[in-house]
Structure formats: C-alpha cells, structure tokens
C-alpha cells in the first residue's frame, strides 16, 4: 500500500500531465512580455518537469513547498494571427513567456519617457564602419577608420552595402520594398495603417568621398529601428528607413535624382537614360538591372506614400563647429542653379598674335568666373566653378573654345533670380570687351567672344515643415538635458547643400538634423564626424521620429 505522501505525488504528476494536455488543445499562443511576438507553446513531450520524487521514508518527509519547476526553450514558429498593419513583419514571430508582455506606446509616452529611450552608440559606430569596408577609398591617417570612400552609385560595392541593408532590416522584422529607381524602403509596422514616418539618406559617395556623408543618416535610421525593438516600442503608425539611389550625382549626373523621380520632379525615363560620366556607356537603368535593384514598385509618392521624412546629415560646413553647437535643426535648403557656360573665340598663335587681336576664350572665361564670385558675394550668395574644359589644348595656341560649370546658390529664390539676371547681363559685356569691374582695364580687351548659357538643373529654396522642425528641437533638448548653455547648442540653420529631403519636402512634412564635421570638410577622404556627434545626431533622430508619431496620433484624435 502506498503512503499518503506517495499518493500525493501521484496526484500532482497526474494533474501536471492533464495541464500539458490542456495546453496542447487550447490556445497555442501566449503573449510575451519582452517581444512584440508570439511563439507556439511546447508540446508535453518537449517539457522537462522536475516531478516530485516518491519519498523513501514518508513518515519523516513533509510534502515539498513547491509543486514543479518547468523550463522550455521552444523554437519560434510563424505567427498565424492577423497583423495590425498592412506593413507587417515577414516572418512575424512571437515568443512564449509565463507573463504577458507590455508594449511601450508612443501615444502613452511622456516627454521624460522619450528622453529615457537611448540608442546604442557603440553599435551605431560599429555598424557604420562595417559597411565602409565596401568601397574603401584613399587612406589619409593612421587609424583603422582613417580611410575615405569611393562607393559610386550602383557599383559592385554599392550592391554589397544594399544587400547588407536589406538583410539587416529584414532581420529586424521590417517589410522591404524596392522601387523602380532602386530606392529601398524598410518598414516597421505600427498599430494603425498609414504612410510610414521615415528616416532617409544615401549609401552612395563621391569618388573621393568620406565615411559620413549620407552613410551616417542611413545607419542612424537603422539604429532607431533597433532601439525601438530593444525597448518594445509600438508606434501608432509604421516607421522605417530609406536608402535613396544616386543622391550624389557623381556617376550619373543629376544629384538626388531618385528622390526626385519619387516626388515627380523628373520623368522616370530621363533618370533611366542618364549615362555614366567618364566616357562609359552604362546607363542608370542598365546598372540597376545589372546589380538586381530595379524593383517592381513604381517610383512615385502616389503609389508608395511617405508620412514624414527626417534626415540626419553631417553639416558639410564649419558653422556648428566654429560656434560650439552640437545640433542643427534645419529649417530649409537654399536655392541653387547649375549652368554650363560656353565661351567661343578664335584659336591663334600665342607668339604672333597680340592682345588686341585675340579672341581668347580662356582669358574671357577666367574673367567671367572671377566676376561671378564677386557679384555673388555682394548679394550674400555663392558662386562656384568645378568643371572647366578647353580646346584645342596646346601650349602655344590661344584657346578658341572653353566650357565651364557655374553653380550659384542663394537662400531666397528672389535673390537667386537677381544674381542670375545680373550675371547674364555682365557676362555679355565682359565677353565683348566692355569695362566691368576693372576686368577689361589692363589692355587685355581683345576682339571679343560669344557666351552661351545652358541650364543643367535647378532647385528652388526649400522650407521644411514646422512640426518636423519642432520635433527635432524637442528631441535635441531631451538629449542635452540640463547641460549648461544648452540653448546655444541647438541652432536653427539653412542647408547650403542639396539633399534628398529637398524633394521629399515637396510632398510630405520634412526636416533635417545637422551634426558638426571636423573643419567643415566634406566630399573629401578626410571627412570626419566624431563618435559623440554621430551618437548625438542618431539620438535626436530617434526622438524626433517618436515625437512625430505621437503628434500624428494627436492630430487625428483632435
């Protein structure tokens, strides 16, 4: 006959077996307190309970204070529950736990809670330099990362970085969409349907570029998604990160062309037919096809909408560094126009033709370039020439043909129009030998040349959205906390350079975040942004995205 303790143990074991059977026949999914996911419960055969042993001396042993212990590490299986958003995780996992999980919802978060969510700065720095192994350029210093970048768009190195982007974001549970221009959209689902709030920038670089222009912005967006997952944050609307194609325009000569196609600023065929610089025959379309990144989704804001766009970027200038600022809340981008100027004169012998009988296209072009700088300075604008070609290219022949680029930029459209009008008038006079600003006063008047203007591209002044700018400033205040002089560490700025945010701002609320770069240097192998500044920018980006998500929900509810 069994003792009372032995009967007790048999009953417990029998009850445990019944419990396992109940688990198998009822709901197979229980919520997890740590992950926004579910996992199928283990079957009874996979559970290893610590059953209560039969006592050998029942008279001297009291019943245990516990009934059983159970430990199981089941393999995750695909979730069968309906998603909350059209943008869903693929695959969508859920994990087992004995306690229910709780998501941190942006709509319930206080300002203090926004400030408490921190990115992993070391992870950001490590990921950034990992992808810089693809497309390394010129070494400029002794440190491991003192190497520039030469990752031209749609090159083999660009494909490697793109593959990493897709694999990484999918591992975070994002749905990845690639459009017809090769723009890659990684989307993390939200509680509700709606166009996602994106962080966007670019992986392509100049042929002699650095490691932070564009690259930092993409990685900061990915780090924001990782941090949301780490902290179990549920946004009201989907969020994500974009890698825009050919922002630089260094290989196919229109900058920001793919975001421009998305915004409706350029026809798709025009972008496809761009031929690579340097004498190659590849087109942008043929290279998209070659590396496998010409996607099935139409490149259009109408088909693939965005809710808002935030972009973290190095300043590419010295203002923040010189003023001691840490964050630039960017209000907009200045207007600019690019022209090709053609000057035609007459070839002649350098030793037998005096100045008054020359039609020197090179000398005339030099005067025009100098005058463009002087006039731009008068109007608080900028003028630059980065390309110059001449013919015939002989030491003892006065050139009869010169072609050069002219890039003019102003903060306001009206000022840019004034500068363009003044330069066209003055260029005509200078080329014809008329005295203008002392340029024809030294006996070099000559017989005159002709000047032709061709507009290559233009971009009007861009004003970013107040809601987005305010979210950036509030997030920067969170990041700085009680730091002394925090009011001077965040500055409102206008971007001197063009960015993909120029085109997104035409269709959706947009703003940018600037961080300092050493000596203001960019488009150069020595371009550098410190780990602290990279982390500061990524922290502000995350906070701006979360705050904007809450703001969207509040506006809908109002």
Overview of the molecule:
- There is one protein chain.
- The protein is of the alpha+beta class and 558 residues long.
- It has three domains: 4-102, no CATH class; 106-334 and 461-553, 3-Layer(aba) Sandwich (Aminopeptidase), CATH 3.40.630.10; 336-459, Alpha-Beta Plaits.
- The chain is 33% helix and 19% strand.
- The protein contains 15 helices and 22 strands.
- It has helices at 4-25, 111-116, 121-131, 156-171, 215-230, 257-263, 268-272, 284-291, 319-323, 361-378, 413-431, 466-480, 486-489, 500-504, 531-557; strands at residues 29-31, 38-40, 104-105, 136-139, 147-149, 175-178, 184-188, 197-202, 233-234, 239-244, 308-314, 327-333, 335-344, 348-349, 382-384, 388-391, 397-398, 401-410, 450-459, 462-463, 490-495, 510-515.
- Strands 6, 7, 8, 10, 11, 12, 20, 21 and 22 form a nine-stranded mixed beta sheet that branches. Strands 13, 15, 16, 18 and 19 form a five-stranded antiparallel beta sheet that branches.
- Helix 3 (121-131) crosses helix 5 (215-230) and helix 10 (361-378) packs antiparallel against helix 11 (413-431).
- The longest helix has 27 residues, at 531-557.
- The protein starts with a helix and ends with a helix.
- The model is unreliable at 22-99 (pLDDT under 50).
């Amino acid at each position: 006959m069994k003792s009372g303790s032995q009967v007790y143990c048999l009953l417990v074991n029998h009850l445990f077996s019944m419990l396992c059977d109940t688990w198998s026949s009822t709901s197979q999914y229980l919520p997890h307190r740590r992950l926004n996911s579910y996992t199928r419960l283990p079957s009874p055969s996979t559970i290893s309970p610590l059953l209560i042993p039969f006592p050998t001396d029942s008279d001297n042993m009291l019943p245990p204070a516990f009934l059983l212990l159970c430990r199981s590490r089941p393999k995750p299986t695909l979730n069968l529950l309906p998603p909350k958003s059209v943008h869903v995780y693929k695959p969508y996992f859920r994990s087992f736990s004995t306690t229910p999980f709780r998501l941190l919802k942006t709509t319930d978060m206080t300002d203090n809670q926004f400030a408490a969510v921190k990115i992993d700065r070391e992870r950001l720095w490590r990921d950034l330099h990992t992808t810089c192994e693809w497309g390394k350029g010129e070494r400029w210093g002794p440190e491991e990362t003192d190497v520039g970048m030469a990752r031209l768009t749609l090159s083999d190195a660009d494909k490697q970085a793109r593959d990493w982007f897709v694999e990484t974001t999918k591992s975070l549970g994002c749905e990845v969409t690639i459009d017809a221009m090769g723009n890659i959209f990684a989307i993390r689902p939200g509680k509700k349907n709606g166009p996602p709030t994106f962080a966007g920038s670019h992986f392509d670089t100049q042929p002699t570029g650095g490691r932070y222009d564009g690259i930092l912005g993409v990685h900061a967006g990915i780090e924001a998604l990782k941090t949301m997952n780490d902290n179990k944050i549920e946004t009201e609307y989907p969020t994500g990160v974009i890698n825009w194609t050919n922002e630089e325009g260094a290989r196919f000569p229109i900058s920001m062309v793919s975001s421009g196609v998305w915004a409706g600023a350029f026809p798709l065929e025009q972008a496809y037919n761009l031929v690579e610089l340097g004498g190659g025959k590849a087109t942008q379309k043929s290279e998209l096809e070659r590396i496998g990144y010409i996607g099935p989704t139409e490149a259009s804001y109408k088909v693939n909408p965005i809710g808002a766009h935030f972009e973290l970027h190095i300043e590419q200038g010295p203002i923040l560094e010189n003023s001691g600022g840490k964050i630039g809340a960017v209000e907009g981008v200045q207007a600019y126009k690019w022209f090709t100027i053609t000057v035609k004169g007459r070839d002649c012998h350098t030793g037998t033709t005096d100045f008054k009988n020359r039609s020197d296209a090179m000398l005339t072009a030099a005067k025009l370039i100098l005058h463009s700088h002087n006039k731009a300075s008068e109007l608080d604008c900028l003028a630059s020439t980065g390309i110059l070609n001449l013919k015939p290219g002989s030491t003892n022949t006065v050139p009869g043909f010169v072609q050069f680029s002219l890039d003019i930029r102003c903060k306001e459209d009206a000022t840019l129009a004034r500068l363009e009008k003044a330069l066209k008038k003055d260029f005509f006079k200078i080329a014809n030998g008329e005295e203008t600003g002392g340029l024809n006063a030294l006996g070099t008047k000559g017989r005159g040349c002709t000047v032709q203007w061709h507009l290559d591209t233009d971009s009007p002044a861009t004003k970013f959205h107040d809601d987005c700018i305010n979210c950036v400033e509030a997030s920067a205040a969170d990041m700085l906390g009680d730091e002394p002089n925090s009011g001077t560490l965040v500055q409102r700025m206008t971007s001197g350079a063009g960015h993909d945010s120029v085109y997104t701002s035409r269709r959706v609320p947009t703003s940018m975040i600037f961080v300092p770069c050493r000596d203001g240097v960019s488009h150069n192998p020595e371009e550098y942004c410190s780990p602290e500044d990279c982390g500061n920018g990524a922290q502000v980006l995350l906070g701006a995205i979360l705050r904007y998500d809450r703001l969207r929900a509040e506006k809908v509810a109002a």
